[in-house]
Each structure stands twice: as structure tokens, then as C-alpha cells.
Design goal:
Layout lengths: L1 H22 L5 H6 L11 E6 L3 H15 L2 E6 L4 H7 L8 E3 L3 H9 L26 E13 L24 E4 L4 H33 E5 L2 H9 L5 E5 H9 L5 E4 L6 E9 L6 H11 L2 H11 L2 E2 L2 H4 L17 H19 L5 E2 L3
Parallel strand pairs: 1-2, 1-3, 5-6, 5-7, 6-11
Antiparallel strand pairs: 3-9, 4-7, 4-8, 4-9, 4-10
Keywords: Signal
Protein name: Extracellular solute-binding protein
Length: 360
């Protein structure tokens, strides 16, 4: 059934673009009513997806899409190297879809001409902050990045209440976080840089991140290793995505509680886009239609704890996803414009490489 839905959606999109092109976007209704059906868009046999999402999630998405469409999915998980890979291949794209990473990354790459216009049927339901006004990218997952703590080591009164508390000497050697390749950590660093620079400029932001780094005991390139460390009591405080905190608390029995930061939490919107001049353009459009649909968002919410961007999907998601989470102030256009410089500063001048622990 989904294959037929995708084909119909692609046909509708092709028809809409044809009408807009012939009339400057103002085709009279009577002409649209008389227009012949658009030809079916034949799907190529493969779609190549560059992503930052975990392999289990990508496998589930790929298997389901292939079962519904017959299109084979080849995915490559690139973590912090995703944007650079897409940018470097702009003249000769090797992938069809970019799936994952936050809005600031998509804003940068869209300005550089890396994405093709698309118009998935579910986009009409998305709030404006979750999509490009030019049809170049769309948010498919909301991901709060939050502080959390080991409840066996800290009472709520002793836990950090806001991001500024993470630089307090009482948390020295008591914080764990993901390493600099983690897309969620990179987003958090950029949002925190923006937030702390609003009053004191770059100096205040650098001072904050320097103080945070000083209190970090270890950075991990594996989320499971990070949670194992804090679950074992090797540290008392961590920074992670809300879904991973909930998963390790509820499914792995770890003594964890998350913190609703006083100033707000980092809200990362993971997006998807069709790459410009994709080698498999029809399959790429079909994958985008599938991956942001209500049914897929509901599946990811219930099977992988990924918070939907569609309200219709949120209504069928786990109850905790409907919790009121305050957003840390952010201007993602400003963050996008400064992201590379800020991340370079963090990685090269602040981040302690000797604190990075590999997964085993």
C-alpha cells in the first residue's frame, strides 16, 4: 500500500510543480481541474542514504522501506562527518538523501546548493520552524538534549538545575558526555555557545565551554559506554538526548533522572533532504515521502523513542514525549552562520582529547 501512496504522492508533486511552472505559481483552478494525470515516477532499484542515526534505527527504516517499495537502501553512517561528505561530493553526488543532523547543518548546505526541491505530502502538517520555506529540507524528529544525573549519587536538590551549574567546582570530574563526533553533542555545544554569548559575547561562551570541559571526566564515542559509566556510579552527571535517558532508565533499569533546565533545553530537530543531482532522484523523493510520514514517525516513536515533529504522530507516541520541555533560546540561522568557527574553537582549543574514551 505504501508503494502506491508514494507513487501517488510523487505524481501529485510533479503535477503541482508543472502547474506552478506554467503559470508562475498561480494556475487557475479550472485549468488544474482539467489537467491530465501526471505520469507515474518509476523508482530506481536503489537509494543511497547518508545519515547520523544509529544502525538499528537505519536498518528498521531501510527494511520497511524496501518491503513496501522494492527499493534497496544503502546507508552510510557518518556522524560528525556528514556535512563535509555531502559538501565535498557536491559536484559529483554519491548519495541521494541526507537523513539526520540538525537544522543549522541543513541551513548551511541549503545555502550552498546541496539540496533539491521536494514536496512530501506530510510537509503541510509541519510547523514552519520544522521546514525550509523553499522546500529544501524537513524536520522528521525532535530531540531534546538534557542534563541528567544518577539518583543513587545525587538528590534532586544537589543535581544541576541549569546549564551554568555544570561549571561549578562541585561537579569537577563528575560529568560525562558524548565526544566531538556526536551530532547531538555538536548541536548542544553550538546552542550553548549561542546562549552564553548573548550577554558576554564570544569570550563568555568560550569561558563557559572551558569550565564545562574542565569538569568533564570522560567523553565517549559510544552512548552505551557513556551510560554504563554513569549507571555504574563512575560519574554523577551527564549530557544526553532525552530519549536515551528514558530508554536507559526504563528499559535498562539505571538510576537516572533528567533535568528540565531553568533556562531551557537544547532542542535538536533532525532533518531529511534530497541531495541535489542525486543519482537516484525518484527513489530519493520516495524515501523522503516515506521517512517523514505519520506512520514512520509513529514507528520510530514507539520502537526507538524518537519524538515526532508531526502532531498527528505525537498523539500515538509514548506519553512521555508529550511532556512540556522548554527550549533554550536559539537562533539557528545565527548558529548556522557561525557553527564551523564555534566547533573549531571547541574541538581545537577547548576539548580535552585525553578525556575521550573509546567503546569496547
Amino acid at each position: 500500500m505504501l508503494n502506491r501512496k508514494i507513487t501517488a504522492a510523487l505524481c501529485a508533486g510533479a503535477l503541482a510543480l508543472t502547474l506552478a511552472g506554467c503559470s508562475g505559481g498561480d494556475a487557475p483552478k479550472q485549468e488544474a481541474d482539467k489537467a491530465p494525470d501526471a505520469p507515474a515516477q518509476e523508482l530506481e532499484d536503489t537509494v543511497v542514504v547518508y545519515s547520523t542515526h544509529p544502525e538499528k534505527l537505519l536498518t528498521a527504516v531501510a527494511d520497511d522501506f524496501t518491503a513496501e517499495t522494492g527499493v534497496n537502501v544503502e546507508f552510510v553512517n557518518l556522524k560528525g562527518e556528514l556535512a563535509d561528505r555531502v559538501r565535498s561530493e557536491k559536484g559529483n553526488p554519491q548519495a541521494d538523501v541526507m537523513y539526520g543532523a540538525d537544522v543549522s547543518v541543513y541551513l548551511q548546505l541549503a545555502d550552498e546548493g546541496c539540496f533539491a526541491v521536494s514536496d512530501p505530502t506530510w510537509a503541510a502538517e509541519l510547523p514552519s520552524e520544522f521546514k525550509s520555506d523553499k522546500g529544501l529540507w524537513y524536520g522528521t524528529i525532535k530531540t531534546p538534549v538534557m542534563m541528567f544525573y544518577n539518583t543513587d549519587k545525587l538528590d534532586a536538590a544537589d543535581a544541576p538545575a541549569d546549564w551554568s551549574d555544570l561549571t561549578d567546582p562541585r561537579f569537577a570530574d563528575q560529568i560525562v558526555a558524548r565526544d566531538y563526533l556526536s551530532s547531538s553533542m555538536r548541536s548542544a555545544v553550538c546552542n550553548l555557545y549561542y546562549y552564553f554569548s548573548q550577554d558576554g559575547g564570544d569570550e563568555a561562551a568560550v569561558n563557559y565551554l572551558t569550565g564545562l570541559n574542565a569538569n568533564v571526566k570522560n567523553y565517549y564515542n559510544s552512548g552505551s559506554m557513556m551510560f554504563k559509566a554513569i549507571g555504574n556510579g563512575e560519574a554523577s552527571v551527564g549530557i544526553s538526548t532525552m530519549n536515551d535517558i528514558i530508554d536507559n532508565r526504563d528499559n535498562n533499569g539505571m538510576p537516572l533522572a533528567y533535568v528540565n533546565a531553568t533556562s531551557g533545553d537544547v532542542i535538536v530537530t533532525d532533518c531529511a533532504a534530497v541531495i541535489n543531482d542525486a543519482p537516484h532522484p525518484n527513489a530519493a523523493q520516495a524515501f523522503l515521502e516515506y521517512v517523514g510520514s505519520k506512520d514512520t514517525q509513529v514507528m520510530l516513536a514507539n520502537d526507538f523513542n524518537r519524538m515526532p515533529t508531526l502532531d498527528s504522530a505525537l498523539a500515538e507516541a509514548p506519553e512521555w514525549m508529550r511532556a512540556d520541555v522548554k527550549m533554550l533560546p536559539a537562533d539557528w540561522n545565527v548558529i548556522a552562520a557561525n557553527q564551523k568557527a564555534w566547533l573549531d574553537e571547541w574541538q581545537n582549543a577547548i576539548y580535552s582529547q585525553d578525556k575521550t574514551g573509546a567503546s569496547s
